[in-house]
Amino acid sequence: MSATTETGAANRAPTPATNPAVVTRFAPSPTGYLHIGNARTGMFAWLYARHYGGKALLRIEDTDKARSTSEAIDVIFDGLNWLGLDWDEEPVFQSTRAGRHAEVVEELIARGGAYRCYMTQDELAAARAAAEAERRPFRLNSPWRDADPATAPEGQPFVVRVKAEREGETVIEDLVQGRVTVANAELDDMVLLRSDGTPTYMLAVVVDDHDMGVTHVIRGDDHLNNAFRQLSIIRAMGWAEPVYAHIPLIHGGDGGKLSKRHGALGVDQYRDQLGILPEALFNYLLRLGWGHGDDEIISREQAIEWFDLDGVGKSPARFDTKKLENLNGHYIRSADDSRLADLVAPHLGFEPTVERRDLLRRSMASLKPRAANILELADGAAFLFRTRPLEMDAAAAALLEGDAPALLARLHAALDAVDDWDTEALETAVREVAEAAGVKLGAVAQPLRAALVGRKTSPGIFDVLELLGRDESLGRIADQMA
Ligand code: GLU
């Protein structure tokens, strides 16, 4: 019996890729928008945890009170939610943890890993000026580092500084950057607690990561230098060191740091202003700096199965709007028509009735093969809802000159006689008019399109007729015929 149970247990043993001990976190600061570079880092941290069957956590670094408005925080939640990133525990708000940060500072002082520094602004400025005069890099050498605390000036303001190692070197085996070494002489006694008693970012990050049980710190490589400084705190506290993975930032197509000029918008702007689908942005950001062979189209499930940090490149990835649009077109073509109609509706400029909403849904099949984004879909569908007589753009007006009004009159008569208003019957009727007039189909279809759509381009003309329906189609033709 027990042998059977053991065999059963062995069968259920985790696969080698599973490591429930993995805990990652995404720690954005609310700035009013969720930069796609940050979103990608958050995705990587999330994917790593999901891949290993561990935990993905979220921490809002809201210590900058001026910037961390509830709107700015909502932008983050909204963007992450839209991308489909979920978290295994309630988000931690860093601002609520100031007491705990201060408590750790006390312990650090007691352990000899930090000290109260009473240097005044003038003393600091003088030390800096001296370094400058001697043309050597400024390294703070506080007299309070090794002073007897009993000599501390009573009631004077102070900051708490970490007692950074000065000898030797610190090595980080970064999962993306490889082995990175820094001479400890480079590290300074950074401030942990400001003179007003508030914790610095350096301290807060370390304490929160520790308390949240974070095993893997996956974040932008702009924080690589910080990792060495943060390790001084971790070591002084005798805490377990996390594994680090510093992800290269995204660069623009011209190689410069990704800025708004390159299309580095907030995640919400990709959704609202560019009409990108979340699965397209997810796929795009995933492929940006991470690869799985030549695979371009990668589903969320495959991403979880395949993602690991060894696939993340060391050099900055380049943002390519064209690729994003191509992927978006792919996902639009495979998206459900009702869902697309829901996404298009808010861009129409009016609240569609149930019937119009249904018309919108039915139009998706003929519109989506050509659309790169939701806005193009909305633009393509707009003709369905225009009111008669249609306003013609210049190209359409040109198509309605010459023989066109007479041809339209013949089309009107032929279409009026069609019993079943379906694409097959409509095509037969239009072809017969072209034949009788001795012209090619295109010569009839072009003015017909202009009359029905008000433009030179549209989905297939028979789809247009079917979608508009008998009355509206005949009415629009009548408006333009001789
Ligand atoms: N809040 C920091 C940022 O948004 C991230 C800190 C970290 O990941 O350690 O850049």
Instruction: Give me the Rg, rounded.
Output: 32 Å
What would the principal axes of the Cα set say about the shape?
elongated
Structural class estimated from helices and strands: mainly alpha
The CATH topology of the largest domain is what? Rossmann fold
Return residue spans where pLDDT drops below 50 for at least 5 consecutive residues: 1-14
Give the tally of structural domains: 4
Beta-strand residue fraction: 5-15%
How many strands appear in the DSSP assignment? 12
Helix content: 40-55%
In the sheet with the most strands, the strands line up as: 1-2-3
The CATH superfamily of the largest domain is known as HUPs
The tally of helices reads: 19
- Ligands present: glutamic acid
Topology:
Elements: H1 2-11, E1 23-26, H2 36-52, E2 55-60, H3 70-82, E3 92-93, H4 98-111, E4 114-117, H5 121-133, E5 159-162, E6 169-174, E7 178-183, E8 191-193, H6 201-211, E9 216-220, H7 224-237, E10 243-247, E11 250-251, H8 267-272, H9 278-287, H10 300-306, E12 317-318, H11 321-334, H12 337-344, H13 354-367, H14 374-381, H15 394-399, H16 404-416, H17 423-437, H18 441-453, H19 461-480
Parallel strand pairs: 1-2, 2-3, 9-10, 11-12
Antiparallel strand pairs: 4-5, 5-8, 6-7
Helix pairs in contact: 2-10, 4-6, 6-7, 9-11, 12-13, 13-19, 16-17, 16-18, 16-19, 17-18, 17-19, 18-19
Glutamic acid is lined by residues 27-29, 61, 205, 219, 223.
Catalytic activity: tRNA(Glu) + L-glutamate + ATP = L-glutamyl-tRNA(Glu) + AMP + diphosphate
GO molecular function: glutamate-tRNA ligase activity
Region (Disordered): 1-20
